[in-house]
Amino acid sequence: MTDLRTTVVVITHNRRRELLRTLDRLAELPERPEVIVTDNASTDGTADAVARHHPEARLLRPGRNLGAVGRNLAVREVTTPYVAFCDDDSWWAPGSLTGAADLLDRHPAVVSVTARIVVEPHGTEDPIVRELRESPVPGPPWLPGPALGSFLAAATVLRTDAFRKAGGFHPKLWLGGEEELLAADLAADGWWLVYADHLTIHHHASEARDATLRRRHGIRNTLWFTWLRRPVVPALRRTLDLARTVPRDSTSLLAFTEAAAALPWILRERRVLPPEVESRLRLLEPAQRASKARRYLG
């Protein structure tokens, strides 16, 4: 069942044990995909462990922590038409990479396929799966699944060329909701993003995480995206929604402060989305307010 259409890209930082488990699972896949790992300047021996235990994986060592841009670095090396992302604490289920490639082969206007996320070790669905499955974004009847307004980098297969043309993940966003800007730009280019319920990725959350930093970046990046791409009135409404719903603590205050400090950059790079893409984002706003799964709120 070897499938040469998809390369798996993984970024990692100081999660040697989790990464080796993920690489073990990816090596067992019947598709036998090429795997590229970007080690974001780990100090726990991650890179040496990968070289020793998984020499078949291509290892990139940029020498500093690039955040999500580590994925961009890896995609430069990809020669397959599709690229599958997963985190160092997640892995694709057997057959899912082939299933995603089949969907992309059959639907040339679809740019990304996001899989169902199963939380380990108990095998339960991630709460965000229901939101993906019940996405309010309208799409043409030929779509192979619900249309999405964004995607989850840890559970998505994308067209390699489209990712490159759109510029990949913006370096200023680093990590935390970094997908939203790229997803909107892909939609503005005429692409559709979909959810596929029959594809699966497993996630065994690492304990080595800075939830506070991730929440700060998630709030900040949402504000940046909002003012980079949304018209003024929706941007004001979204900003007020965030101000009302995020925890009232120093982390949220710092996130808003960082977002405001970047106003000159925002004004230079602001490019409002086409009306059809903006209308999809407006439909998502009620679901975003009611969401129990948004990572940066918890």
* Oligomeric state, counting identical vs distinct chains: single chain
How many extended strands?
A: 9
Low-confidence stretches: none
Broad structural category: alpha/beta
Order of helices and strands: EHEHEHEEHEEHEHHEHHHHH
Shape: globular
Radius of gyration: 18 Å
Mean pLDDT: 94
Estimate what percentage of residues fall within beta strands: 15-25%
GO molecular function, one term: glycosyltransferase activity
InterPro entries: Glyco_trans_2-like, Glycosyltransf_2, Nucleotide-diphossugar_trans
EC number: 2.4.-.-
Family: Belongs to the glycosyltransferase 2 family.
List the main descriptive attributes of the protein structure presented here.
298 residues, globular, 43% helix, 9 strands, Glycosyltransf_2, alpha/beta, single chain, Glyco_trans_2-like
Write a structural description.
The protein has 298 residues and is of the alpha/beta class. It is 43% helix and 18% strand. The chain is built from twelve helices and nine strands. The chain has helices at residues 16-27, 46-53, 69-75, 96-106, 128-133, 160-165, 179-188, 211-229, 232-245, 250-261, 263-269, 275-290, and strands spanning 6-12, 34-39, 58-60, 82-87, 90-92, 110-119, 124-125, 156-159, 192-203. Strands 1, 2, 3, 4, 5, 6, 7, 8 and 9 form a nine-stranded mixed sheet that branches. Strand 1, helix 1 (16-27) and strand 2 form a beta-alpha-beta unit. It is globular, with a radius of gyration of 18 Å. The model has no long low-confidence stretch (mean pLDDT 94). This is Glycosyltransferase family 2 protein. It is an enzyme of class 2 (transferase). Keywords: Glycosyltransferase, Transferase. Its EC number is 2.4.-.-. It holds the Pfam family Glycos_transf_2.
